[in-house]
Design brief:
single chain; alpha+beta; Heat Shock Protein 90; two-stranded antiparallel ribbon; 3 helices; 18% strand; globular; HATPase_C_sf; SMCHD1; SMHD1 protein
């Protein structure tokens, strides 16, 4: 569970890495049955994702370093950090399976809601472990 939560936090750290101002990352454990099934919510004030980026996230083994037509794909100057045991070095999901493994380790479905910083559109992706 700790590594799954670390992966979700790592994704938020990546999403908020280029914002100006204060980063905001919240982790909420929701157990109120009146609101639906128990859930883990990770909320950040990152740059958001377009519908294409959300769909790309849902593709197994599609690394953020190999996505086509995505602003995340230009990592020509990327130098992989030295491995540091049990640390958040923003390199956990290098092979494109981290976020998906994390959400499906924690639960049976994922719901992502995102609004790109430069857009008024809000995008939502719902993915079940069974469908994935």
């Amino acid at each position: 569970l700790a590594f799954a939560l670390a992966e979700l936090i790592d994704n938020s750290l990546s999403a908020t890495s280029r914002i100006s101002g204060i980063r905001s990352i919240q982790i909420k454990l929701l157990f109120d049955d009146s609101q639906g099934k128990p859930a883990v919510a990770v909320i950040d004030n990152g740059r958001g994702m377009t519908s294409k980026q959300l769909n790309n996230w849902a593709v197994y083994r599609l690394s953020k370093f190999t996505r086509q037509g995505d602003f995340e794909s230009d990592h020509s100057g990327y130098v992989r950090p030295l491995p540091v045991p049990r640390s958040l070095n923003s390199d956990i999901s290098y092979f494109g399976v981290g976020g998906k493994q994390a959400v499906f380790f924690v639960g049976q479905s994922a719901r992502m809601i995102s609004k790109p910083a430069d857009s008024q559109d809000v995008h939502e992706l719902v993915l079940s472990k069974e469908d994935f």
